[in-house]
Amino acid sequence: MPNFRSRLSRAGIALVTALSLGSSSVQAAEPAANNPEEARRFEEARQRYADDQYLPAAELFEALHHDTGNSLYLYYAGLAREGAGHDAHAALHWRRALSAGLDETFAAKAQGRLDQVKARTTAFTLTVTPAPLTDGASLELRYRGAGERRPLVVTQGDLPLHLEPGDWTATLTAKHPGFESLAVPLSVARGTPQLAQAFELRPIEHPATFELGPEEAVRAGIVLTLRDPDNLAPERRETLSNARFTAPLRAGVWNYTLEAPGHRSQSGTLTVGPGAPPLTIMLAPATPTPPMTSDALLAPPMRRRLALGYGIASIVPAVAGVTLTALAAKTDVPADPNGNLAENSLKPVNDRFLGGGLLLGTTVGLWTGTVLTALPLRRRAWYFVVGAGGALAVGGLAWNLGTYAAFRDEHFTDGGQGSPCDLCGSLSPEEWKRDRSHLLASTLVLGLGAGLLLTAATNLIIARRRPSLALRPAPTGFSIRF
Questions:
Q1: What percent of the chain has pLDDT over 70?
Q2: Which domain of life does the UniProt lineage start with (predicted)?
Q3: Most exposed: 172, 285, 350, 446, by fewest CB within 10 Å?
Q4: pLDDT tens digits for range 207-241
């Protein structure tokens, strides 16, 4: 029954159309009157339609529109396509004819036909990823059912398309040559008002190779930044450790920027494609250091790297020092009936205070060295820091040893055979508080001097080997490479 109704509907359409094609009003509007060849071709197309040869008639009307640009032929081609059951093609012809401009009589007829087709078809839309590829992309729709059909080729401006029920294949091709076409099968069910399809286009990638120099720039760490001028891919940033770097990139043009400490940055464009040769770039040295900072021991990039390295390195002794000191402070030392503290119980507490104070002092020394490293100090200033650090370290060590000797003389006793026993006797809380204060103070001073001495010596050593040394990030932290 549905097929009979469809044939009856098409027969009615054909009859009305044949009458309209032969009416005097249509003849008056025909542009073929002044061109015999065009008139002959129009007459042939009209006769084919009258003989129910819808596809040949549609192709003749479409050829007339292609050669003359007259939108009236698109209206007639839509009637022929509708007669053949190609509702999507017919609706597309009428929409384009209305957009191009028809006189009032034919515009009303085309709009009426288009509204009828919309009511019995499915409105098809699409989305494209990356979104900028939507502009200029072409969509080819092929009907996979029985019968002869020409594929529909449309652009974004022709959407939504109104597809009749059946199986279709939609192939999207981007205008940009760096992306693959994508074919997607569609199944349009009868009675479905709308159908949306997402297309995610994949880039066509080729290996792009950079050969970089000089060696000093590679050792210092070259940063490569790649940008897509069409905004079809996110910015890519690589820190290179080798002179040769290869990465797969989308075919087409890319912008690049190369930066390295002590060298001028360089920018340019790179064309990626099959068989493209490597891009060789030699970075030029930077301009000389301004006079106001020329007397500094190290250049600003190296100072920043060293300061960052010291700051990170100080985390470990800081955490360990705080932990040991806190454990020592929280340790409960038993007292005898007289309220004195047993000396043998104080030994592990004493050791923890010793280690914690030394680590905390070293942390303060590293922090002080970090601040000094960030400043443009001259070599003479660093020699002063070496002297100060050494003096503090020696003074703290002497203080600590003196405290230990006094503690031993006061609280150690000899055994029966002339050998010392293991911390015999006891201390009052006041005596322990006094000894603990001296212990912590001396180890803090010792650690402070050691931290200053370490940072100052490192700065001076690096300054002497500056032409062949680089400090840069590594997977497990920072590494110094000679």
A1: 75
A2: Bacteria
A3: 285
A4: 999 999 999 999 999 999 999 998 888 999 999 98
Mean pLDDT calculated for residue range 106-121: 94
Asked if 373 contacts 455 with a C-beta cutoff of 8 angstroms, the reply is yes
Whole-angstrom Cα distance, residue 108 to residue 87?
Answer: 18
Compute CA 467 distance to the chain's CA centroid, rounded to the nearest angstrom.
35
Residue 82 has pLDDT above 50, yes or no: yes
Helix axes 54-68, 36-50, angle to 10 degrees: 160
Q: pLDDT band for 411, please (50, 70, 90 cuts).
A: low
pLDDT digits (tens, 9 = 90+) for 255-313: 999 999 999 999 999 999 998 899 999 999 987 544 444 578 778 888 788 788 878 88
- Under a CB-based contact definition with an 8 Å cutoff, are residues 46 and 22 in contact? yes
